[in-house]
Amino acid sequence: PTGGGTAPVLVLVGPPGSGKSTVGRLLADRLGVAFRDTDADIERLAGKPIPEIFIDEGEPHFRELEVRAVREAAGTHDGVLALGGGAVLAEATRTLLAGLRVVYLEVALGDAVKRVGLDAPRPLLAVNPRAAWRELMEARRPLYLEVATVVIDTEGRTPEQVADAALEAL
Ligand code: S3P
């Protein structure tokens, strides 16, 4: 980024259930910087939880808020930044990520479903999560790879081990 503003020291991307928030917090702790999550920023911006934004305003509106949230965070946050799983769908977001250190957390279908099943509700995975997840990944994997400077396979690794691998790879 230009203009003398701050930029994230590192950005985490990957599908729901890849561990972006958990690993992001660990990485922020180890690097001694703050953690920020654009999903939380969007909820603050909208004044409601993400599932409600999807229901009340629809996914396109959510994606607009998401581009705004990523632009804001990428320009002002100098810590670790986790993006929502679908953030890479927006070309504007992919452009914002150019030149930043971006870690893509790869996750196997089974692990992701296990994690998101226990976690906060994801509107896009509410019905038939396995099929939905497979479809999401077909569309998104090329985009994650496009923005990533580092790819970490999370399979069989604890969040601590994933954080170690990310730090080693950076
Ligand atoms: C989404 C992932 C969610 C959240 C929204 C849409 C997606 O974030 O942004 O529900 O399209 O994959 P997480 O990846 O943090 O679950």
UniProtKB/TrEMBL annotation:
EC numbers: 2.7.1.71
Top-level taxonomic group: Bacteria
Naturally occurring in which organism (per UniProt): Kitasatospora kazusensis
Ligand binding (Mg(2+)): S21
Keyword NAD attributed: no
Cellular compartment(s): Cytoplasm
Positions contributing to substrate binding: D39, R63, G85, R140
Cofactors, names only: Mg(2+)
Gene name per UniProt: aroK
Any matching Pfam family: SKI
Task performed by this protein: Catalyzes the specific phosphorylation of the 3-hydroxyl group of shikimic acid using ATP as a cosubstrate.
CDD domains to which the protein is assigned, alphabetical: SK
Keyword Magnesium listed: yes
Pathway as given in its UniProt record: Metabolic intermediate biosynthesis; chorismate biosynthesis; chorismate from D-erythrose 4-phosphate and phosphoenolpyruvate: step 5/7
Major location category of this protein: cytoplasm
Top-level EC class: transferase
Signal peptide from the UniProt entry: none
Residues noted as binding ATP in the record, renumbered to the chain: G17, S18, G19, K20, S21, T22, R122, R157
Cofactor binding: number and manner: Binds 1 Mg(2+) ion per subunit.
Similarity-based family: Belongs to the shikimate kinase family.
GO MF annotations, alphabetized: kinase activity
Protein keywords: Amino-acid biosynthesis, Aromatic amino acid biosynthesis, ATP-binding, Cytoplasm, Kinase, Magnesium, Metal-binding, Nucleotide-binding, Transferase
Protein name: Shikimate kinase
